[in-house]
Structure formats: C-alpha cells, structure tokens
Amino acid sequence: MHAWPASEVPALPGKGRDLRIHDTATGGRITLDPGPVARIYVCGITPYDATHMGHAATYNAFDLVQRVWLDTKRQVHYVQNVTDVDDPLLERAVRDGEDWTELAERETALFREDMTALRMLPPKHYVGAVEAIPGIVPLVERLLDAGAAYELDGDVYFSVESDPHFGGVSHLDAEAMRLLSAERGGDPERPGKKNPLDPMLWMGAREGEPSWDGGRLGDGRPGWHIECVAIALEHLGMGFDVQGGGSDLAFPHHEMGASHAQALTGAYPFAQAYVHAGMVALDGEKMSKSKGNLVFVSALRRDGVDPAAIRLSLLAHHYRSDWEWTDQVLADAVARLDRWRAAVSRPDGPSADALVEEVRAALADDLDSPAALAAVDRWAGAQTSGGGTDEGAPGVVSRTVDALLGVAL
C-alpha cells in the first residue's frame, strides 16, 4: 500500500533539541534518545469514514515528533497501518450496500488526500492489515506453540497471563480493563475464555464475511492488536522509540499489542515510550464515528478552508489535552494565519534568531505547540508594531514555521 507525497522540510540553522515527552507507561516525561535513525509506529485508521478532526489532531501530534527529530539531524523511520478489514468496516459496508473493499479503498484514498493537504509527513511504510496477513499467521502459530495462546470454538485467543508485564502500559485495574474491553471491541463476557480480558488473535471464518487461509489456524482473519504487532516487528523491531495513537488506544490496543510482542520475543519493552494524544469533542461529546458527531477535514476543504488554518487550529491545543472543536477555534486559526502571512510578506523585520530557538524549545518540551505559536505571535506583533531592519528575518520565520510546525506561509 502506498502512502502520500512528502512536502519538503526546510533545513534550519543550527540543530534542534532532543525531545522530552510524556510516556503513558511511566506516567511522566522521559527524554527520548534515539540513535541516528528514530523509529516510530502510529496506529492508522479503520477506513469506513474519512479523516475527522480527532484523527487530524492525533496525526498532527506525531508529525510534530517527526519534525523535532528531523531538526536534530536524525533520520526518521515512521510506520503506520491501515486496518482495512475489521468489524466496523464490514458493518458500514453492509449498511450502505457497498463492497467492503471499495469502501476501504475510497476512504483510504481520501485520508491520503487529507494528509497531503495538511502537510503531514508520510510514513516510510504504510501497511494494510490485509497485506500483513502472511506475516500475522506465523506469529499466531508461534504464540500457540509457546502456550501463550489457545483455541476456542475455531478462534484463537491470546492469554494475557503469559506476559508478566501485562498492565504496564495503561496501569488500569482489572475492572476498568474489563469495562473498556467491552466498549472497545473486546468480548470479556464470552464463555470459555481463560481470562475475560484475553483478546482475539485470529477469528475463524464467519459466513458472509471475508476470510483468508490461515494454515493450521484455519480460514479466518486477524485480530486488531496482532495486526499492528506484526507490522511493527517486521519494519521496526522490538524496542522502537515511540508507539503513538489517540488516548483511547492506551487500553486495550497498546496494552495488548505490547504483551503480544513481549510474549513472542521474550524481550521488553515493545516500545520505549507510549505517547497518546487527547480527544477532540463536538457539542460536549468526544468526536467519534459511533456518535456521528464528526467534523471532516475533507468537508472543511470543500468549503474553502485553507488547510494551513485547519492545522493551526490543531496546533493551538496541546496534543495531550482534550478539547472541543468550535467555529471560533477555526476563526481564530484563520485570523492567526492571516497575521502571520502579512508579517512574513514584508521585506524585512525584527531578528528571528531567538524565535527559532523558542520554537525549538517549546516543541522539545512535550510538543508544546501553543507555546510555539505564541512565540511566532510575538514576532508577528513586533513586526506589525515597529518592524525591524533584518532583511532575512521574514524568510527565517517562514522556514521555521514550515519546518517545525508544518504550516506553509
């Protein structure tokens, strides 16, 4: 599966700072110290709807991670999946009387268009669940052989008790896990499971649903968590730098994925840091497909909203905060974009040397994008009130905003 085209990232003078970021597993900030190649895996969409603002906020956060790393002169090995076969996708296709593969392909294509418009840097490997199945089956077989998985009426489940580190990502108690498992695709009430929390690794073929040859597993399709594990292990290996996604993925998805990988390899940890973005709400409720309260990036673009303004609306909120999308949020972003573009359009201005370091420092401090925006606001305000005589300053500001914030002025 192909990703989307990359926008050019301008090179800035000097060198950026190492990233200090909040790690869900430790509950505090850690300083990431990747080698020459930083490795990041971000969980992708289930393509039964287009990119909404919650998606955009999540991918914006991890785009900032990439940009901070690139500014430290590292290479970035970024991997993202597409869950292009799953219950919600199949249910939507049945509801709309549409072939599920056509639905997935159309929405994935629209997602690529949205990411391109928002200047999100693309992954090096963009992998669909369906194309990953040949690599998933052997992993499930290995877990069975190791006694870390078991069969139940034609399905295969992972035993959470096989990983001594289970629970180390989310740190939730068993009851909280059980409730979230039921809400987020698990089946804790199914009879016959060794532990109610055990997640499915391989779903045996169901009538009327797609299935693939699973060898000795029988025909079927993969569970949600093992999909990401197979892709991450193949392209990044154990101990990669950042596992990313929305805060609703901490449990069960990232918890289960970590345990799958740790049981498979005997190594720990699956990722050095688990980084989670906050949720975006509309009318007081989390923006989600199940609630139908979505604001789509593609719809805003069709209405003529500049993608740079959409991106600025995301950057105005700290990536870990939960916030609400309103018309005022967008209006503020449009006004800010206009001010910035007017400021950099002048032939000279106040020195921007300090600004570059302010933006770097803000982003290195747990991706504090509101502080980075405030620094640019101050420069633009100084430009408006009195300007300056540094002929290179507007260009430096424009390149800084582009390279570190992904906004083209």
pLDDT < 50 runs, ≥5 residues? none
CATH class label of the largest domain: Alpha Beta
In CATH, the topology of the largest domain is named Rossmann fold
Query: Main sheet: which strands, in order across?
Result: 5-4-3-10-11
What does this protein structure show overall?
The protein has helices at 53-71, 87-96, 100-117, 129-145, 174-183, 224-235, 250-265, 297-302, 307-315, 327-344, 353-364, 369-385, 393-405, and strands spanning 20-23, 28-31, 37-42, 75-82, 125-128, 149-152, 155-158, 200-204, 220-222, 240-246, 271-277, 280-282, 285-286, 323-324. It has two domains: 20-286, Rossmann fold; 305-405, Four Helix Bundle (Hemerythrin (Met), subunit A) (Up-down Bundle). The protein is built from 13 helices and 14 strands. The protein is an alpha/beta fold. It has a five-stranded parallel beta sheet with strand order 5-4-3-10-11, sandwiched between helices.
Main attributes?
alpha/beta; four-stranded antiparallel beta sheet; 14 strands; five-stranded parallel beta sheet; Rossmann fold; Four Helix Bundle (Hemerythrin (Met), subunit A); 13 helices; single chain
Task: Reconstruct the topology from this structure.
Blueprint lengths: L19 E4 L4 E4 L5 E6 L10 H19 L3 E8 L4 H10 L3 H18 L7 E4 H17 L3 E4 L2 E4 L15 H10 L16 E5 L15 E3 L1 H12 L4 E7 L3 H16 L5 E7 L2 E3 L2 E2 L10 H6 L4 H9 L7 E2 L2 H18 L8 H12 L4 H17 L7 H13 L4
Parallel strand pairs: 3-4, 3-10, 4-5, 10-11, 12-14
Antiparallel strand pairs: 1-2, 6-7, 7-8, 8-9, 12-13
Helix pairs in contact: 4-6, 6-7, 9-10, 10-12, 11-12, 11-13
